[in-house]
C-alpha cells in the first residue's frame, strides 16, 4: 500500500507576484493587521511622489527570515489560536519594490526577491540609535493611500492611524456591557438598525444583500447574512476578543467566514441573544413559531404586538386601491379576517375590501389582513368573513379598458356572511366580477370589473385601473400607461351616455378655441367650415387645397 501527503510545490513561490497583489483595501488591512499584531498603538502613513510609507510603533521585526516565509506567520501560539494568521503578510505587496527598516536593520525586496532570490539584511544606515523610536517602517510604490481609503480599515482596529498628518476616525465597535462568549472568543451585541453608527452602516452597505451580522476580526470587518428572528430589523455585532477561537476567515482574502462548527455555534448564540434582546425590550412582533422557539430555549416572551394591515389589498408596484380606514379606538377583535372557505376565489378578497371601502353600515365593517405566521396568538382569533356574494342590476354598457373588461350596470350590492351569523351588505359603485364557467376561455382574461354610473363621480381613475390589470412593468412608463388608461376610461364613460357621445365631445372640445359669440358651425364633406356668428355674420374656412386654388385664380 502506498501513501501520499500534501506538499507545497516550489513553483508556487515563483508565482507569488501574481498571487497576492489583491485590492488596495486588501493591502491596507493586511499591513494594519501586521502592525496591530506587533503591538503598535500608532501608525503613520505618508504619500510622497508615488511612494507610500507606513510607520508603526510596535515591537518591530525580531526574525527577518519570516518576512519571506510564505505561509509561515512567525507569530506566537497564542495569536495563532486566536487569529489564525494566514502567513501572507508582506506578500500582499508583491511584486512592488519594498524597503523595510526595523530595530536598526534594513533591507529591500524587489520583484526577483519575492520569487526566491536571497535578500541581504544590513545595518540601517539611517538608524538614530534610539531604541523604540521606530517599530517598523515600510516604503513602496502604490496608488495613494488616502484618508478615504484607509479610514474604513482603521476605524475599528483600536490603533491611532494618521494619513498625511490627518487622523483617521477611531470608534469602539461594541458596547462594554454586551454578552461575552468566551467559548468562541468573542462578544456579541444585538442592535436595532436605527442604533447602528455611520461606520457600522458603511461596513454593511458594500456587503451581500441582506447582510446584518458584522464581525470585527481585530479591525477587519466581515459582513454576512443571518436572520434568526423575523419581524424586527435586528443587527448583530460580533467583536473578537483575542481569546482562542474556532471562528476562521476564508484565506487568502479573509473577507468571509469558514463554514465550520464554530460558525454554527456562533449562529446559535446570535439566535439566543436576539430573543434576550427582545425580552429586555418588553415587546416584540415575532411570528408564533419563533415565539415557541424562544420558549424552547428557556426565554419567556409575552404575546407579540398585533401585526395586521387594515384592508386586504395593497399597492405593489402600481396604482393604489381604494383605502379602507379603521375608526379611532376600533378594537381589532371587532374587525374581520377573510377565511379560506372552500370554493373561494381571489375576487373574494377584492370584494370584501371594496365593500368596506365603498359601503355604508350602521356599525363599522373593517376587514384586516393577518399573516398566517401569527396564527396561535390570542389576538389573531378575530371574526372571519366566510362567504361573499355580488349581485348586479341590468347591464348598461361594457368595453375593453386597460387590460380587462369594464362592465357598467345599474346597481351593485356586495354581501359578506361572517362568523357568528352576521351579514354585512351594502350598495357599492364597484365590484370585481366573480368567476363563472365561461371566464376560463374568455379573450378578456381575468380582469372583469363592475361599476355603476356613480363610480365616474366617486372614484379616481387609478382606483379603477388597480382592478383592471394596473401597471404593467414590461410596458411603457407608469405615467404613459396611466395617461392611456385615463383616455380609455374617459371614452368608456362617454359611450355610456350614447354611442355618438365620444364624437360629439371631441367636436365640442375642438371648438373651445373659437372666440365667443359664434352661433353654429357647419362642416362639409370637402372640408369647408362655415362659422355663423351671433350677429349673423359668417366666416368661411377652406381646406388647404381650396385656398391654393382660389389664390391661383386670382
The quaternary structure here is single chain
Shape by Cα distribution: elongated
Measured as a percent range, the helix fraction is 25-40%
Strand order of the largest sheet: 5-4-3-6-2-1-7-8
The domain count comes to 4
Strand content: 15-25%
* Total DSSP E strands: 26
Low-confidence sequence ranges: 438-444
Mean pLDDT: 85
Rg of Cα set = 38 Å
Sheet with most strands: 8 strands, mixed
- Tell me the span between the first and last alpha carbons: 118 Å
Based on secondary structure, the structural category is alpha+beta
- The helix count comes to 15
Structural overview:
- The chain is α+β, with helices and mostly antiparallel strands.
- It has four domains: 11-167, 2-Layer Sandwich (Heat Shock Protein 90), CATH 3.30.565.10; 179-296, no CATH class; 309-497, no CATH class; 514-553, no CATH class.
- A hairpin with a 2-residue loop joins strand 7 and strand 8.
- Helix 3 (24-37) crosses helix 6.
Name the features.
554 residues; alpha+beta; Heat Shock Protein 90; 4 domains; eight-stranded mixed β-sheet; six-stranded mixed β-sheet; 15 helices; 26 strands; elongated
List the helices and strands and how they pair.
Layout: H1 11-14, H2 16-19, H3 24-37, E1 42-48, E2 51-56, H4 77-83, E3 98-102, E4 105-109, H5 111-114, E5 122-123, E6 136-141, H6 147-154, E7 160-163, E8 166-167, E9 179-181, E10 186-192, H7 198-204, E11 213-217, E12 220-224, E13 234-240, H8 261-281, H9 288-296, E14 309-310, E15 336-338, H10 346-358, E16 367-369, E17 384-392, E18 395-401, E19 404-409, E20 412-418, E21 423-428, E22 430-432, E23 448-451, H11 454-458, H12 461-465, H13 478-497, H14 501-510, E24 518-523, E25 529-533, E26 538-541, H15 544-553
Parallel strand pairs: 1-7, 11-13, 15-16, 15-17, 19-23
Antiparallel strand pairs: 1-2, 2-6, 3-4, 3-6, 4-5, 7-8, 9-10, 10-13, 11-12, 14-16, 17-20, 18-19, 20-21, 22-23, 24-25, 25-26
Helix pairs in contact: 3-6
Amino acid at each position: 500500500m502506498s501513501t501520499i501527503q500534501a506538499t507545497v510545490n516550489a513553483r508556487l513561490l515563483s508565482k507569488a507576484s501574481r498571487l497576492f497583489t489583491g485590492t488596495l483595501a486588501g493591502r491596507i488591512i493586511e499591513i494594519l493587521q501586521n502592525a496591530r499584531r506587533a503591538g503598535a498603538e500608532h501608525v503613520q502613513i505618508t504619500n510622497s511622489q508615488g511612494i507610500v510609507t507606513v510607520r508603526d510603533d510596535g515591537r518591530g521585526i525580531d526574525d527577518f527570515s519570516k518576512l519571506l516565509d510564505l505561509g509561515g506567520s512567525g507569530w506566537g501560539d497564542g495569536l495563532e489560536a486566536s487569529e489564525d494568521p494566514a502567513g501572507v503578510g508582506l506578500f500582499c505587496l508583491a511584486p512592488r519594490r519594498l524597503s523595510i527598516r526595523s530595530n536598526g536593520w534594513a533591507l529591500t525586496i524587489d520583484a526577483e526577491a519575492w520569487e526566491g532570490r536571497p535578500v541581504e539584511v544590513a545595518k540601517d544606515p539611517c538608524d538614530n540609535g534610539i531604541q523604540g523610536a521606530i517599530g517598523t517602517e515600510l516604503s513602496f510604490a502604490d496608488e495613494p493611500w488616502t484618508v478615504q481609503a484607509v479610514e474604513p480599515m482603521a476605524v475599528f482596529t483600536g490603533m491611532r492611524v494618521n494619513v498625511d498628518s490627518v487622523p483617521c476616525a477611531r470608534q469602539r465597535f461594541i458596547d462594554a456591557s454586551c454578552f461575552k462568549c468566551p467559548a468562541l472568543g468573542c462578544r456579541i451585541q444585538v442592535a436595532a438598525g436605527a442604533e447602528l453608527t455611520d461606520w457600522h452602516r458603511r461596513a454593511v452597505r458594500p456587503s451581500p444583500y441582506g447582510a446584518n451580522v458584522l464581525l470585527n476580526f481585530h479591525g477587519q470587518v466581515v459582513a454576512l447574512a443571518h436572520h434568526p428572528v423575523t419581524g424586527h430589523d435586528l443587527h448583530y455585532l460580533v467583536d473578537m476578543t483575542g481569546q482562542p477561537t474556532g471562528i476562521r476567515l476564508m484565506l487568502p482574502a479573509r473577507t468571509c467566514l469558514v463554514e465550520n462548527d464554530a460558525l454554527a455555534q456562533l449562529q446559535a448564540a446570535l439566535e439566543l441573544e436576539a430573543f434576550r434582546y427582545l425580552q429586555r425590550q418588553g415587546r416584540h412582533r415575532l411570528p408564533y413559531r419563533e415565539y415557541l422557539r424562544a420558549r424552547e430555549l428557556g426565554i419567556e416572551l409575552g404575546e407579540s404586538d398585533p401585526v395586521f394591515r387594515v384592508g386586504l389589498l395593497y399597492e405593489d408596484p402600481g396604482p393604489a386601491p381604494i383605502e379602507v380606514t379603521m375608526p379611532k379606538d376600533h378594537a381589532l377583535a371587532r374587525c374581520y379576517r377573510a377565511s379560506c372557505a372552500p370554493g373561494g376565489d381571489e375576487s373574494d378578497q377584492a370584494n370584501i375590501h371594496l365593500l368596506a371601502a365603498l359601503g355604508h353600515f350602521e356599525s363599522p365593517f373593517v376587514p384586516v389582513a393577518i399573516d398566517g405566521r401569527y396564527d396561535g396568538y390570542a389576538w389573531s382569533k378575530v371574526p372571519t368573513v366566510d362567504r361573499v356574494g355580488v349581485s348586479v342590476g341590468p347591464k348598461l354598457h361594457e368595453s375593453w379598458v386597460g387590460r380587462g373588461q369594464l362592465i357598467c350596470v345599474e346597481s351593485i350590492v356586495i354581501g359578506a356572511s361572517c362568523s357568528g351569523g352576521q351579514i354585512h351588505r351594502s350598495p357599492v359603485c364597484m365590484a370585481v366580477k366573480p368567476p363563472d364557467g365561461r371566464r376560463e376561455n374568455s379573450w378578456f382574461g381575468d380582469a372583469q370589473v363592475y361599476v355603476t354610473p356613480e363610480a365616474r363621480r366617486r372614484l379616481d381613475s387609478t382606483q379603477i385601473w388597480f382592478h383592471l390589470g394596473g401597471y404593467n412593468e414590461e410596458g411603457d412608463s407608469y405615467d404613459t400607461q396611466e395617461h392611456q388608461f385615463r383616455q380609455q376610461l374617459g371614452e368608456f364613460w362617454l359611450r355610456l351616455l350614447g354611442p355618438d357621445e365620444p364624437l360629439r365631445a371631441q367636436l365640442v372640445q375642438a371648438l373651445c378655441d373659437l372666440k365667443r359669440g359664434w352661433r353654429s358651425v357647419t362642416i362639409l364633406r370637402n372640408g369647408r367650415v362655415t362659422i355663423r356668428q351671433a350677429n349673423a355674420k359668417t366666416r368661411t374656412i377652406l381646406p388647404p387645397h381650396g385656398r391654393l386654388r382660389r389664390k391661383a385664380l386670382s
